[in-house]
Design goal:
By secondary structure, the protein is mainly alpha-helical. It is built from 17 helices and no strands. The protein is globular and about 50 Å long.
């Protein structure tokens, strides 16, 4: 299904930068706190754009968003490392975040529409291909880092691959029909309603756990366990692999065991992964921890997207955008903040800050069990 390919290309383009953060830090000659500050530019662009992303998605054809927006994500990374000056780096990451916002809403909305048209869950499998894309981006990045391939060549190559592939595959793509065609009123801003805000709080721990692993696993392995570039990149790849594996079977697991039990197991594995990373005495334990973190965070966000899009109080675009604005913002906003903690204390302490949000997710799950129809299906 072509929507799966869209998720893959999206992650493959966005993920190019993260396995090379160690090289970017060295190239710019900055510490972890300064790197964290720069990484905040992506969520800045994302948050500003998500306020009106639902209207952009309605106005711009999906194939244009995929064929232009996805390659532009990586092109902004290429432009940033090409100029290699902090002010320009920050600017291009802000623009990158803006493209991420539009693509994120559009691709998730299309997955929900296809899911509704088919009458069976595909959201987790869609996000499995996102994780597979990130896995391949991590493997390619680790190999390029190990063999010291220039950042500019790496990012430009990914940009060209994304553009050519998306142009060939999505040139004649026909979008699925909207889920709720009878809703006319569109909110001016994509702010969450009370029920959506509960879903946001439930989702935040998974987004922080996933984002922390993506942003800091490579540098954690280098600083804490003195790992080589290939082993450091392997930790990120393993997190993406376990996440992809669980997401691919996630829809069937939810159908068989129900969303409640799957949510409980997800939270358990995130707890386990964080403890293994924070207390790791070897690179093997750390990699195992990142593996558990990827598996535990796998289905929470896709399930939340389905919950938001299935509500009939507002257009699906608006509910998805409002959820994404806050939950996906945590994915990009939280991990850079952890860089300040890592610079002041240790990256072990940074990862431990995921624990309070995991406890919050447990509390929000208790509320949703009683209030959210999705959990009674």
């Amino acid at each position: 299904m072509m929507v799966f390919v869209g998720f893959f290309l999206y992650a493959f383009s966005l993920g190019a930068m993260f396995p090379r953060l160690d090289d970017i830090q060295t190239s710019l000659a900055i510490d972890k706190a300064e790197l964290g500050f720069l990484l905040l530019c992506i969520p800045l662009g994302l948050q500003v754009t998500l306020v009106f992303a639902d209207r952009l998605v309605r106005a711009i054809p999906l194939k244009s968003i995929i064929c232009i927006g996805i390659p532009s994500i990586c092109f902004m990374q290429f432009a940033a490392v090409l100029i290699n000056q902090i002010p320009f780096f920050a600017f291009f990451l802000i623009v990158c975040g803006a493209f991420v916002a539009v693509v994120e809403v559009a691709i998730n909305l299309e997955a929900d529409r296809v899911e509704h048209a088919l009458g069976s869950r595909i959201m987790n499998r869609s996000h499995a291909f996102w994780s597979i894309g990130f896995f391949f981006a991590a493997v390619v990045g680790a190999l390029f880092s190990q063999f010291k391939v220039m950042l500019e060549i790496h990012f430009l190559l990914i940009c060209v691959i994304s553009f050519v592939t998306s142009k060939i595959i999505f040139e004649d793509y026909v979008v699925a029909s909207p889920r709720h065609s009878n809703l006319k009123k569109i909110a001016k801003f994509s702010m969450p309603t009370g029920p959506i805000f509960v879903v946001v709080l439930f989702t935040m721990s998974a987004m922080l756990v996933e984002g922390a692993g993506i942003d800091w696993s490579v540098i954690f392995m280098r600083e804490i366990h003195a790992a080589s570039p290939i082993i450091s990149g392997f930790s990120l790849a393993m997190a993406a692999f376990s996440q992809a594996f669980v997401r691919y079977f996630g829809d069937n697991l939810i159908n068989k065991f129900g969303p409640l039990l799957i949510s409980i197991f997800s939270l358990f594995f995130m707890f386990l992964g964080i403890f293994l990373v924070v207390l790791s005495s070897s690179s093997t334990l750390a990699v195992l921890g990142f593996l558990c973190m990827g598996a535990g965070s796998a289905v929470i966000f896709p399930m939340s997207i389905s919950i938001a899009a299935s509500r009939d109080d507002r257009p699906a675009e608006t509910n998805v955008a409002s959820l994404t604005q806050f939950a996906f913002g945590m994915f990009l906003l939280g991990p850079p903040i952890l860089g300040f903690i890592g610079e002041a204390y240790s990256l072990r302490w940074s990862f431990s800050l995921c624990i309070p949000l995991l406890i919050l997710s447990c509390l929000m799950l208790l509320i949703m069990i009683k209030k959210e129809p999705y959990f009674s299906r």
